[in-house]
Specification:
Blueprint lengths: L1 E3 L2 H7 L5 E5 L2 E5 L4 E5 L5 E6 L4 E6 L5 E7 L1 H42 L6 H17 L4 H4 L3 H13 L2 H11 L1
Antiparallel strand pairs: 1-2, 2-3, 3-4, 5-6, 6-7
């Protein structure tokens, strides 16, 4: 599926992008001289806005980056937006299941560490924290979105708590 700016919209908007195309697991925003591929795993949000005459799509990416498509016919923009949103949400739900499984495995490993009756070395904690950081980087969803999914929330919070080393190490050492 594809959405294009109208010819008048392209001229008046004078924006580098005039077309967006839905791919299997992402979108391609392009123009005459520019092309930008946005995989779903980098997409934070999608906004559909109505201007005075035309529609506009905004794609929010990590670190506050935004890619926009201006000058599109409003009815077509709405249809494309709703179809894209449905596909992105379906993909996101599938990836939340994957993320939930990965997080659950790490939380189980952390629970075993908590149950051990031994002094927790700082090096052990640093190792766990590095593993959590690696898992976060490998998740198929952006971290900004992981907490939005109910099946990920609890385990994500537990992993985040382990990144606060002083709280965890002191609690575990006191238990020992």
């Amino acid at each position: 599926m594809e959405l294009r700016s109208t010819q008048i919209g392209q001229r008046l908007a004078q924006h580098p992008y005039n077309r967006v195309c839905l791919l299997n697991a992402g979108i391609e925003v392009s123009g005459d001289k520019h092309q930008y591929l946005i995989p779903f795993n980098q997409l934070i949000s999608i906004q559909c806005k109505r201007g005075i005459v035309w529609g506009e799509l905004e794609f929010e990416l990590p670190e506050g980056k935004v890619v926009c498509l201006h000058g599109t016919e409003w009815q077509q923009t709405q249809r494309f937006y709703h179809y894209l949103l449905k596909e992105w949400q379906k993909w996101s739900l599938d990836m939340s299941d994957v993320s939930a499984n990965v997080l659950a495995v790490k939380v189980n490993e952390v629970a075993k560490i908590k149950q051990q009756s031994r002094w927790l070395k700082t090096a052990d904690l640093v190792s766990v924290q590095q593993q959590i950081q690696e898992i976060f980087q490998a998740l198929p969803l952006p971290l900004q979105r992981v907490a939005q999914f109910e099946n990920c929330q609890d385990n994500y919070k537990i992993c985040l708590d382990w990144l606060i080393w002083h709280a965890n190490i002191n609690i575990l050492r006191e238990k020992y």
